[in-house]
């Protein structure tokens, strides 16, 4: 009986993944053909939807949150922590390569300093989106909102003709506030237990 339920759950998850991929492909075709939405935006939205489903609806996602929250407890629960970390690093490097290819195709140039501030922007977007630096917490959609905040901040500073050093200071200050808020919330949450 339990195996039948597990098969049904895994087939539902697979159906959701296939459905998300089909909708993404259709939207890419429609928007790229006449609406003028860049293909990179559609690919990013498809990846966000895919990772939201993977993190929320699959055992891999639950195991990932468990390893992020407490690796030792996850190991004792039977989760392959080392294997999970290797898988996540491989996935991150694959996505970084995809992002590099998309950025290179957009700018039609390759330079080592083409985006020297991307690391700060990525970390700030994740932390502002509610991802805990201590692990085990976070949401894909919240990170998207954090990226929109960082992008809006960067765009606003560009419109004000601010130097890159001023942008780094402002983004660093916002990141510092977000990390401080995360640490305070974590500390008060631990005291309340």
Structural summary, described in words:
This protein is mostly helical. The protein has a domain at 113-193. The protein is built from 8 helices and no strands. It has helices at 2-35, 39-57, 59-69, 71-76, 81-107, 118-128, 140-159, 164-191. Helix 1 runs antiparallel to helix 2 (39-57) and helix 2 (39-57) crosses helix 3 (59-69).
SSE topology sketch:
Elements: H1 2-35, H2 39-57, H3 59-69, H4 71-76, H5 81-107, H6 118-128, H7 140-159, H8 164-191
Helix pairs in contact: 1-2, 2-3, 6-7, 6-8
Features:
81% helix, mainly alpha, 193 residues, globular
Helix percentage: over 70%
Oligomer: single chain
Low-confidence stretches: none
Rg over CA atoms, rounded to whole Å, is 19 Å
Counting H and I runs of at least 4 residues, what is the number of helices?
Answer: 8
- What structural category arises from helix and sheet content? mainly alpha
Distance, first to last CA: 37 Å
| Percentage of β-strand residues | under 5%
Shape assignment = globular
Mean pLDDT: 81
Helix and strand element order: HHHHHHHH
Count of individual beta strands = 0
Largest sheet: none
What is shown here, in short?
This protein is an all-alpha fold and 193 residues long.
């Amino acid at each position: 009986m339990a195996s039948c339920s597990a098969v049904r759950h895994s087939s539902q998850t697979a159906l959701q993944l296939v459905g998300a991929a089909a909708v993404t492909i259709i939207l890419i075709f429609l928007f790229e053909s006449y609406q003028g939405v860049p293909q990179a935006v559609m690919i990013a939205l498809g990846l966000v939807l895919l990772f939201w489903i993977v993190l929320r609806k699959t055992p891999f996602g639950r195991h990932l949150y468990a390893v992020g929250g407490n690796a030792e407890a996850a190991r004792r629960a039977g989760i392959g922590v080392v294997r999970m970390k290797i898988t996540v690093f491989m996935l991150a490097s694959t996505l970084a390569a995809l992002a590099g290819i998309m950025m290179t195709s957009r700018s039609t140039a390759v330079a080592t300093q083409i985006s020297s501030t991307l690391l700060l922007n990525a970390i700030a977007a994740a932390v502002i989106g509610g991802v805990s630096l201590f692990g085990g917490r976070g949401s894909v959609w919240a990170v998207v909102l954090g990226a929109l905040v960082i992008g809006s901040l960067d765009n606003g500073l560009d419109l004000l003709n601010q130097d890159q050093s001023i942008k780094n200071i402002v983004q660093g200050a916002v990141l510092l506030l977000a990390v401080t808020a995360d640490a305070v919330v974590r500390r008060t949450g631990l005291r309340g237990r």
